[in-house]
Amino acid sequence: GQQVMQIPQYQHVQEGEDFTTYCNSSTTLSNIQWYKQRPGGHPVFLIQLVKSGEVKKQKRLTFQFGEAKKNSSLHITATQTTDVGTYFCAVHAGNNRKLIWGLGTSLAVNP
Amino acid sequence: DGGITQSPKYLFRKEGQNVTLSCEQNLNHDAMYWYRQDPGQGLRLIYYSQIVNDFQKGDIAEGYSVSREKKESFPLTVTSAQKNPTAFYLCASRRGETQYFGPGTRLLVL
Question: Residue A62, SS3?
Answer without folding.
Answer: strand
